Amino acid sequence: MGMSSSLVGVKPPDAKWIAMKAAWEACQAAGVPPPKEVEDFFNGERPDPSGVVVQILHTAAVHEFAPHDAAEGFEVYLDKLPKDVTVLRFWNSW
């Protein structure tokens, strides 16, 4: 089994995030699923306290990079990220 690298962008909480989180929590408290708009806003995941998590690994902002046979990774083009992404979250898993 090999190592897998992941990368997402995070848009910090703003007024819309706070309202959507309140809607999510109200639905959870009532025992009903959140409306599609709320679910889509959080990409089908539970709200992350850091903000909205967006996939960027397979977008124009990220290119694979292999400086030699024993190394590979990716480059992130900051000017191609969504303007409201202020955090990049990287992790490796096995």
Q: Could you please describe the fold and organization of this structure?
A:
- The protein is of the alpha+beta class and 94 residues long.
- It has one domain (4-93).
- Helix content is 23%, strand content 34%.
- The chain contains 2 helices and 5 strands, in the order βααββββ.
- It is elongated.
- It starts with a strand and ends with a strand.
Quickly list its features.
34% strand, 94 residues, two-stranded antiparallel ribbon, 5 strands, 3-stranded antiparallel sheet, 23% helix, elongated, alpha+beta, 2 helices
Secondary-structure topology with pairs:
Layout: E1 4-11, H1 15-30, H2 36-41, E2 52-55, E3 62-68, E4 71-76, E5 87-93
Antiparallel strand pairs: 1-2, 1-5, 3-4
- Helix-strand string: EHHEEEE
Question: Spatial order of the strands in the main sheet?
Answer: 2-1-5
Q: Enumerate how many helices there are, as a single number.
A: 2
Strand content: 25-35%
Provide the domain count. Answer: 1
Which overall shape is indicated by the principal axes computed on the Cα atoms? elongated
Rg calc: 16 Å
**Unreliable segments (pLDDT under 50, ≥5 consecutive)?**
none
Total strand count, please? 5
Question: Major sheet, described briefly?
Answer: 3 strands, antiparallel
**Could you tell me the mean pLDDT?**
91
Cα distance spanning the termini: 7 Å
* Derived structural class: alpha+beta
Name the helicity range.
10-25%
